């Protein structure tokens, strides 16, 4: 992320225009916290300029939508980048603005597929189609479209921390484990839980009593709304029976618990796939699965080859930071060209993959897998958390994601990490997750500890 720039937002609000432009711009402005942000807006009737002041941003009041007035403001404030969110500013306006300020970066927000002259175009709607802009923007324009770039206010992000869990462990609960499952879930306060059962459940009275004290659990008896409940759920806990076909068809992430011998066929199939499966209820392992499932629901792994240029710059800034670089075998400052060339090389290399990790909408670090050996089912891995996030537990999240991706996506059975003996933070992390230390080895004239994790 480039810092210390002066960024100007050009947007209006009024009784006729509405407030949506300003509100989403205030969300976008937070992404430029290391820069000076200024809003340029007109004082129209019914405006919400007070919202801009409440968020502690400076405002420049414009008398009109004149390009000359805006150009004078850009030059007076020495603006590096302008973000335009205004339907009254079109292609010709933008092109002239660029000719008057050749070094100015122009970013435009668009959701109606209009022609624009800009360096960056943002359509943050989930329906946004990058291909539709192919002939509407200059060839050099970076197009940012879709879910990855959604502008969501903080109050809605907090709501998203609540996950909905669907549970169905056979209508009669002959295995008598629903109570055990709910007890194991008691520490997960961010779950809305829907339990589906039948009036034939032999433990129904006990189940009703247990649930009566827990506001986050809803019991559905003989429900005819099963499909609706599934659609509303983020993930499910079910048996490897008929209901799993429906869960799988609806593409709902799941944890499977085998409760009967007639479930062996489907259970063994899932075991080969290395899904989240339990042969009978195991409280500790079940809680680990729930914890990892919640993390995965909140996480996006973005392959380096799919990063935008600004994301590539951000990753490079992190990697070159002193706190991270000191633990690299190559402690040199990496140039932008070297960085971009290496990322380009990943498009053809099959023995390595790198990811930017986005957790709850926040970029928290990088994980990578190298020397991936599909013959011997092993891989090396690395990780680092972003430099300003110490103490927030992101290292724990990254290591859980590494183990899951290695075993369930790469299908390896052995993970290997190299670490400097003085890197106590990394060593504590690996030992916390039961990585086993191996002998000290020499690597490029550096003594390195090797930590190995094998799949049970």
What's the structural blueprint in terms of helices and strands?
Layout: E1 6-11, H1 20-29, E2 36-42, H2 49-54, E3 58-62, H3 67-77, E4 81-85, H4 91-100, E5 105-109, E6 120-123, E7 142-145, H5 154-160, E8 163-168, H6 178-184, E9 191-197, H7 204-211, E10 217-221, H8 226-231, E11 235-238, H9 242-249, E12 254-258, H10 264-273, E13 277-279, H11 283-297, E14 299-303, H12 309-320, H13 322-325, H14 336-345, E15 353-359, E16 362-373, E17 378-385, H15 394-408, E18 414-419, H16 424-432, E19 436-443, E20 446-454
Parallel strand pairs: 1-2, 1-4, 2-3, 4-5, 5-6, 6-7, 8-9, 8-11, 9-10, 11-12, 12-13, 17-18
Antiparallel strand pairs: 14-15, 15-16, 16-17, 18-20, 19-20
Task: Report what the structure shows.
It contains 16 helices and 20 strands. The chain has 456 residues and is α/β, with parallel strands linked by helices. The protein has 3 domains: 6-156, Rossmann fold; 161-297, 3-Layer(aba) Sandwich (Rossmann fold), CATH 3.40.50.2000; 299-454, Gcn5-related N-acetyltransferase (GNAT) (Aminopeptidase). The protein is globular and about 80 Å long. The relative contact order is 0.06.
